[in-house]
Specification:
- The chain is α/β, with parallel strands linked by helices.
- The chain has helices at 2-8, 15-18, 38-53, 88-99, 119-125, 231-246, and strands at residues 24-28, 56-60, 75-79, 104-107, 128-131, 136-142, 156-161, 165-167, 175-181, 204-211, 214-219.
- It is built from six helices and eleven strands.
- The strands form two sheets. The protein has a nine-stranded mixed beta sheet with strand order 2-1-3-4-11-10-9-6-7.
- β3, α4 (88-99) and β4 form a beta-alpha-beta unit.
Length: 252
């Protein structure tokens, strides 16, 4: 009834005006050998999150989006797509974006990048990938219950994923958000010809830190397509998006 009246008066209000977006996100998601089925599911879930939480996002499956104006984005998400996909000019533009106060979100496969290929990006991630055991069910534990990516998660979260073995060759300080309890799975269970070693009690699977003049949130969780339908995982991801894009939400 109200809409019919507004239409008659020539006063139809665009939907954007009813809930102006708070910020804009760039999501880079390029299919690769192990990560492609998740793409339509993740995009649909992000669209629902964007409507629910009043933000916009640009979905890109090509790196030429980095040739444009990155300053319009509150944060750039590398979704199962590592920075190595960018060419030299695009890397330089992203570096300038971060030095200008831009922010980044790194999800699962995006944390894996060839050693010494782009050291700046390795430092942005904050940890370097060694390998991972086979996908297993484990107990993921909260390391910082004041960080938005833990809101709504249980203290011990039953989760099945690839638990990356990590190194810190550049001595980057990070703030762990989630860790995995290595006693709850077999950290040595890996394919023939490979060796996986436990990391011990200090085994982060999600973290945040400052880099250049921006905020960086990293979650190494998110291997399987069904995870992008899971409400708990999406709450974890949304918490990281919210903090990265706005710097808000931390409880202290």
């Amino acid at each position: 009834m109200i809409w019919a009246l507004l239409a008659l008066l020539g006063m139809i209000i665009p939907s954007a005006a009813l809930a102006d977006p708070q910020y804009k996100l760039l999501v880079l998601s390029i299919p690769n050998k192990y990560h492609y089925e998740y793409i339509p599911v993740a995009r649909d879930s992000l669209e629902r999150l964007a409507k629910l939480h009043a933000f916009e996002f640009t979905w890109a499956n090509r790196t030429d989006v980095f040739d444009g104006d990155l300053s319009q984005y509150a944060a750039v998400m590398f979704l199962n797509t590592p920075g190595e996909e960018l060419n030299a000019a695009q890397r330089a533009k992203f570096e300038a974006y971060m030095r200008g106060g831009g922010n980044a979100i790194v999800v699962h496969r995006a944390a894996i990048t060839p050693p010494n290929d782009w050291v700046w990006y390795e430092k942005l991630v904050g940890r370097s990938f060694i390998n991972h055991p086979m996908l297993q069910t484990a107990a993921v534990t909260i390391a910082d219950n004041g960080f938005p990516a833990t809101f709504g998660l249980p203290d011990r979260w039953i989760w099945s994923d690839e638990y990356y073995v990590l190194a810190n060759p550049y001595h980057i300080a990070i703030h762990p958000v989630l860790t995995v309890d290595e006693s709850s799975y077999d950290p040595t269970k890996i394919w023939p010809g490979q060796v996986a070693k436990p990391m011990g009690p200090d085994h982060p699977v999600a973290w945040y830190h400052s880099y250049e003049k921006g905020r960086v949130f990293v979650t190494t969780l998110g291997h399987d397509v069904e995870m992008y339908r899971d409400p708990t995982y999406l709450a974890h991801l949304m918490g990281g998006i919210w903090w990265s894009a706005t710097g808000r939400g931390m409880a202290r």
